[in-house]
Amino acid sequence: MTPSTANARLRTANPVVATKKGNEPLFQSIVSSPGDPRLSNRRQRTPARYARRIAMLAAALTAGVGAAWAATSGALELFRSNPQNDAAAPASLWDQDVVPGTVVRAASLDIPNYGGIEFWYADSAQGGWCGAIRLPNAQWAATKGSDASGTAPGCYPTREQTNGDDPIFEINGFDYYEVQIDARETGGSFWRIYYGVVTADKPVTKLIDKITGRRAAVQGGQRFVLAVPDPHPDRAIPLPDTYAINLVAYAVDGAVIAAEHP
Amino acid sequence: MSMTSHIDRSVAEARFRDVFAHLGEITAYARRRGSHDPDAIAAEAMTIAWRRLADVPTDDARPWLFATARNLLHDERRRRSQLAALADAPERASVELWQPATLDQEVTAALTSLSLADREALLLVAWEDLSPALAARAFGIREATFRVRLHRARRRFKEALARSPAPAEHTSSHQITLEER
Q1: Per-residue pLDDT tens digits for A54-97
Q2: What is the mean pLDDT of chain A?
Q3: Do A14 and B12 touch (CB under 8 A)?
Q4: How many angstroms separate the CA atoms of A79 and A68, rounded?
């Protein structure tokens, strides 16, 4: 028996024919759940969701609350409003509450031809953490009206909490999100800003992106913000086995205490 | 986190629809591998793909989906094995180890004689219709390594088939389509 005969026989013995039959209810059910937290949390405006948002906005305006926090209020108000939650169910994983006394301006960076940005941090009562990037114009990145896009700010679950019994994240010591700043119109670059925490036993003294060599601003041996220029911001998602960044955190003795792609 | 993506949700949903188009193939994969509930395995694989969309390759999602479904199948077998052990059920061994079922008894016997890795290498190409390059991704190994494994698996399969005493007769009536379940 030749290999080709054997292979043909194997193919013929296939017991199940795959079909292209879709399952729209399943699709809708899946996409109505929280997606990849590394992606923007902005949801598609389906008619029902859009109508609900309009109603919520009207109610907010009626109550005199408005959306003033987006540009002027402090980090505590921002974290309390928890924009990333995006109407997640009460008491769900993404419905985390800021611990008021823990709000700090964790670190800041200067973006050339753009200005200074600040990483604000707080603990959450549910064990997660709150994070936001404040722009030079006092706006919060990735909120409505902001000129920086990316992950909406707020109080997030940790990677461990997100994983639960169904792991989707590698636990490698890093937990972070991203916003984007486009300073090209003012002679600058397109920047990807990574902010988050390192969960390691030892405090971090140095944190770098091994691909670009960029060094993060670190506060408290744990919280960091890193700016990485992207010369091709319109490119597609990186190919498999390629990475946008590769973070490594070091302790004071030079030991690696967290590595994203060891 | 292995990759970072920068697309908004509407783009994510559009992209996920492309991934979701493989639902039938993942269901068939789970069924071919003896899943107790192939629909649930496929739905779970798709849910994980949605939650990890930045990790799903844009050129062809199938290797990633098959690898995810394979992990879910392992979990399913482990759970059923644990349940069988708790009940002291005699089927425990058969739960732990997948026994292939095909339309040809001799092919089934030849596949059963192979290691799980050899069997999976053969079937990803023959039944799941992946190229060796894509099947290597599903295994998480280099293409060259996979090609060596595939070559050896094919040789072993051919030898096992050649040891069969008589020409094959198809022993099942017909292929199962997903609508027939």
Answers
A1: 455 444 443 333 333 443 358 998 999 888 876 566 677 788 89
A2: 80
A3: no
A4: 14
Concatenated DSSP letters of chain A: --HHHHHHHHHHT--EE------HHHHHHHHTS---TTS--PPP--HHHHHHHHHHHHHHHHTT-TTGGGTTS-HHHHHHH-GGGTTPPTTSTT---B-GGG-EEEEEEEETTTEEEEEEEEEBTTS-EEEEEE-TTSPBTTSTT-S-EESPPEEE--HHHHHTTS--S--SSEEEEEEEEE-GGGT--EEEEEEEEE--SSPPSEEEETTT--B-EEETTTEEEEEEE-S-TTS-SPPTT--S--EEEE-TTS-EEEES--
Residue A171 pLDDT level (bands cut at 50, 70, 90) = confident
The reported pTM is 0.47
Which pLDDT score, from 0 to 100, does residue A68 have? 35
A9 within 8 A of B126, measured Cβ to Cβ: no
CB contact under 8 A, A30 and B20: yes
Say if B7 is an interface residue toward chain A (CB within 8 Å): yes
Å from A44 to nearest chain B CA?
A: 5
Q: Which tens digit of pLDDT belongs to each residue from B8-18?
A: 667 888 889 99
Structure tokens at A43: 């949801």
To the nearest whole Å, the CA of B101 is away from the closest chain A CA by 7
pLDDT reported for residue A52: 53
Q: Say yes or no for a CB contact (<8 Å) between B161 and A261.
A: no
CB contact under 8 A, B21 and A20: yes
Sheet holding A247-250, edge to edge: A206-209, A247-250, A256-259
d(CA B138, CA B61): 10
pLDDT per residue over A6-48, tens digit each? 888 998 888 888 877 778 888 988 888 877 877 654 443 444 5
Contact between B153 and B118 (Cβ < 8 Å): yes
pLDDT at A207 over 80: yes
Determine the Cα–Cα distance for residues A235 and A149; give it in Å rounded to an integer. Answer: 16
**Element housing B122 (H / E):** helix B116-126
